[in-house]
Amino acid sequence: MTGSAPPPKRSRRLAVWLVLLLVVANLPIFVLALASGLAVSEEKVAEAKRGIERIAALAAAREAVAVARLSGTVDAVAAGFGQEPLDAAACGRLSSLLAPVDPDIVGVRILRGEEVLCSATLDRPRPAGRFVLPLPIAGDLTVAVELAARSEAGRLGEIELSPGETAAVVGPGGTVVSIAGDLRLVGAVGTLAETVDVARTRRLDMRLPDGRWMFVAAERIGMTSLTAVATAPLDALQAAARRDLALAAGLPLAFLAIAVAVAWWGIDRLVVRWVGRINRVAALYGAGRQSVRVGRLASAPQEMRALATCFDEMADRVEGRSNELRAALAEKSALLRELHHRVKNNFQLIASLLSLEARDATPAEVRTLRTQQDRVHAMSIAYRLAYASGEVGKVPSAALVTEVVERMRHGAGVAERRLWLAMPDEAPGLDLDTAIPLALLLTEVVRPFMAASAADGAVVQISLTTVGETLVLSLSGPKSPSYDDLSGRLIDAFGRQLGAEVILTPPAGQAILRLGAA
After folding, report:
1. What are residue 395's phi and psi, to 5 degrees?
2. pLDDT digit string (tens) for 380-399?
3. Fewer CB within 10 A of the end CB, N or C, for the chain?
4. In a domain, 259, yes or no
């Protein structure tokens, strides 16, 4: 019966490694996109600041044109003074000529150094905010034009400004001459103009008293004491840059996240789950469950189905071959057992023939035939134990010694009480090639002890012990057992064959046999 595969467990190791490789492969693209985004962001901020600088330059240029026009008119009027006294009439005539040039003029004074030579006031509203524009003329004379400060756009109204941006013209003392854009910054622009040293620093980031950071660009207007100032909140300048940076970094990151998610899902659905299933089936198969199979993977990719089919076909072939080998081994074991059984029967037949022969033999011939019977029985016992143990060729040493000795006691006619056997509960097994010469060696060593015991009734003691990997057989019994010349030669021959140490002390009635490989 073919076993079914266990339900798949999700192994994440392969998916994790593949996803990590995907991330590493796309990391340079992300870093490049981030670096490009940072560069673009910095360029965006720089471009925005350059735009504010252009606004300041444009405001300065517009105001410079107005000042130049006013200065040209003053020069033209001053040239007509000639030798005329510079009195109130002269200042009145000058103010009337300058009035059409700039609607913000509220008064005119002609100075020589610090001395006021004359002054004139136009019939115009005089706002609280005023500033004086000095225009030098011939010699040491200066025309001081008094202008009304405005807090509305004025000439700056035509400049295009974005929300939050401000353009202004600032006079001495931070007086705002004109302003366009965020009118709430009138006071702040005056403070900034006083703070900025246009001669040294024309561009800087400044923090307002309310905590906001502003970018300030300032331009000196010609040779006048006026300064054109343009401002914009840094947050506004950096907002677009931050958006571009977020877009530059976020898009690759989003694409990478989507790619990782799709790869994870695809690897899990198409590879990991099926590889994990085949792997678990292979592990169960390797653990001995040869009936388990992967089965049909209907929803798996074609390559996984092919791999599962190959595994199942291989497992079927291995199982078939294993069954054939088991059948062949069983047949071989049966034949071997049958062979041992027949060999044992043949030995029994030989022993029976020798027993029949001994009935009509002389006493000397009977002893000789009994000796041969003991040898035949010893080999027969070894063969019988070899196939009776269930593991062909493995002979239990304790059972072999016991049966060989008991058979010799019975053949020698020694009473059962004259034999004392001490066998261990667990004794090592011997292969058949060791058991047969050991049985024959045992018959040659024990036979004189049995013969002497049958003659004088002495007790024969035999013990089997194991010391490490050495099997030790000890005998003690009647004094001076008799070994003939053939038995001595056979003992030497079987001892050498077994690699055993045989110690015989006939006068003491003792014998020790040590078999090195237990």
Report:
1. -110, 125
2. 888 888 877 666 667 888 89
3. N
4. no
